[in-house]
């Protein structure tokens, strides 16, 4: 076939598409809407822990703990969106996200010996064992939807980072909404992040294997 005719025939099948928004703007939108959703539902299900504002402003270790978690969330969110753009290098940012996550988790482990706040039952929410999943699933579904509108080359890894970002939003909210006790935090606020990430990435792997077979 003549090269010019081949190009013309290929062009004839093309249709205009709307350009996708920048990853940074989409990340900001997702973060704002997800935080608003989690805070609204969280407040509807129960009051936040009394005195948490004073703790944030008056206890530097608690402020640092929250900043570490928020920074890890932002890193995983940006990585999740950039992984849906072929050719974008995210290895460095991904490593930073994991380091920040480990530093955040270390605060709770250290808390068994030197608590950031005095452990107490103040603010305990009766249903926090399942609340984390209620808060996490809609933001996760939306983030995966945003990824699918681009071109994800490594879907399992992309979904893993999406689940980490989505799970960190309610985990951070629970730090000011629920009781502060390291064992409780690790079991009911942090563990759901791992369960959500394992389930979402495992399901994605199974679906991708089925699609390839």
Q: Brief description of this entry?
A:
The protein has 8 helices and no strands.
N-to-C order of helices and strands: HHHHHHHH
Unreliable stretches, pLDDT < 50, 5 or more residues?
none
* Number of helices, counting only DSSP H or I runs of 4 residues or more: 8
Q: How many distinct domains?
A: 1
Q: β content, as a range? A: under 5%
Kindly state the number of beta strands.
0
Class by SSE composition: mainly alpha
- What sort of overall outline do the alpha carbons produce when their principal axes are compared? elongated
- Rg to the nearest angstrom? 21 Å
Distance between the termini: 34 Å
Main β-sheet description: none
> Which percent bin holds the helix content?
over 70%
Counting copies of identical and different chains, the oligomeric state is single chain
Overall mean pLDDT: 89
How would you characterize the overall build of this protein?
The protein is mainly alpha-helical and about 210 residues long. The chain is built from eight helices and no strands. The chain has helices at about 5-10, 25-45, 50-60, 60-80, 90-110, 130-150, 155-175, 180-210. The protein starts with a helix and ends with a helix.
């Amino acid at each position: 076939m003549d090269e010019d005719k081949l190009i013309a025939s290929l062009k004839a099948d093309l249709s205009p598409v709307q350009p996708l928004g920048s990853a940074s703007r989409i990340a900001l939108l997702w973060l704002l809407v997800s935080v608003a959703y989690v805070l609204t539902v969280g407040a509807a299900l129960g009051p936040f822990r009394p005195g948490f504002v004073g703790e944030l402003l008056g206890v530097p270790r608690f402020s640092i703990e929250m900043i570490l978690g928020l920074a890890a969330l932002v890193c995983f969110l940006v990585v999740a969106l950039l992984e849906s753009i072929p050719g974008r290098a995210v290895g460095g940012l991904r490593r930073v996200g994991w380091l920040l996550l480990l530093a955040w988790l270390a605060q709770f482990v250290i808390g068994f010996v030197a608590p950031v706040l005095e452990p107490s039952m103040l603010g305990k929410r009766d249903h926090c064992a399942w609340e984390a999943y209620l808060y996490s699933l809609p933001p996760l579904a939306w983030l995966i939807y945003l990824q699918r509108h681009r071109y994800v080359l490594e879907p399992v890894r992309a979904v893993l980072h999406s689940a980490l970002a989505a799970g960190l939003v309610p985990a951070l909210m629970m730090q000011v909404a629920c009781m502060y006790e390291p064992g409780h935090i690790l079991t009911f606020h942090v563990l759901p992040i791992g369960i959500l990430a394992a389930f979402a990435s495992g399901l994605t792997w199974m679906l991708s294997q089925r699609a390839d077979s």
